Every structure is written in structure tokens, then in C-alpha cells.
Amino acid sequence: MTLRTYKGIAPKLGAGVYIDASSVLVGDIELAADVSIWPLVAARGDVNYIRIGARTNIQDGSVLHLSRPSKGKPAGSPLIIGEDVTVGHKVMLHGCTLGNRILIGMGAIVMDDVIVEDDVIIGAGSLVPPGKRLASGYLYVGSPAKQARALTEAEFAFLKESAVNYVQLKDEYLAEV
């Protein structure tokens, strides 16, 4: 794995974290317990910070970044990801806040100052434009993303199941090292 310090700040890893050797994490990044970072993920905590909650998985080729503080926005836009979140392949997350038990489909883009409440699915290829708030309990699809329908009971259950599956998978990878 490649962990890089930026301005004297290095990524901090919780217990049981798995980071693939091809991924790069730079600067002010904190990963809680049982987080998994899969191949070719790039995460830059350079001009702000990244926080990732327990049992969250960031899948292959995803990019995580943020926005720096400015005159009009003194705090900038950090990237905050809750617990039990599944971030699909090639997702781009930029300066947004994600709640718990979220699934973000492959190739989706979630922009600055978006707030995604708990228990949400964002469909593959969707674009969530800056400043949008996605309410809990719904599927969102499209570009720009729109609320499509309420989640089913099976989808609510799958949100937690997906996170558990990735914890098991990362444990298998860690056992091989």
C-alpha cells in the first residue's frame, strides 16, 4: 500500500483495515475499523480532510477528493463517508457527506456539498450535482440524479449485507498477506 504524508499529516488506519498495494492515500485521511480500499483507489486528503466510517468499502478505481477552504466557504468541502457504505467501481466522490448504509453504483459522481442521508442507493452512472440533498430511503438515478422510487425491504437489507460481504472479503485478503 502507498500511504503518503502531506504537510506532516499521514493517513490514520483503524483496526482491521485493508488497503490494496496499488492504491494511494495522501494526507489527512482517517479510516475507521474494517474499512477496505480496493485496487487503484486514489484518495487525497491534501487541501481538506477525508473521514471514512467503519465497514465501508471503496472499490476499484474510485477517486476521493475534496475542496479547499476559500473566502466564500471558510471550511471548504471535506469528504465524510459514514458506516457500512459500499462505493462501487470507478466512483468519484468530491467534497460530499455520505450517511450510513449507502450503495453508490459503478461510475457514479457525487459532487461538492452533496448530503446523502442514511439508507440510500445511487444508481450506476448517476451524477449528483453540487449542493443536492438525497433523502433517506430512496433510489436515485440519472444525470442529474433524481429520486426514482422508495427502496424495497430487500434493498434495505442488502445495504447492510453488502458491507458485511466486503468485511469478509477483506479479511480473506488480509489472511493471505
UniProtKB/TrEMBL annotation:
Domain of life: Bacteria
Record InterPro entries: Hexapep, LbH_gamma_CA-like, Transf_Hexapept/Carb_Anhydrase, Trimer_LpxA-like_sf
Pfam families to which the protein is assigned, alphabetical: Hexapep
Name assigned to this protein: Gamma carbonic anhydrase family protein
Organism: Alishewanella longhuensis
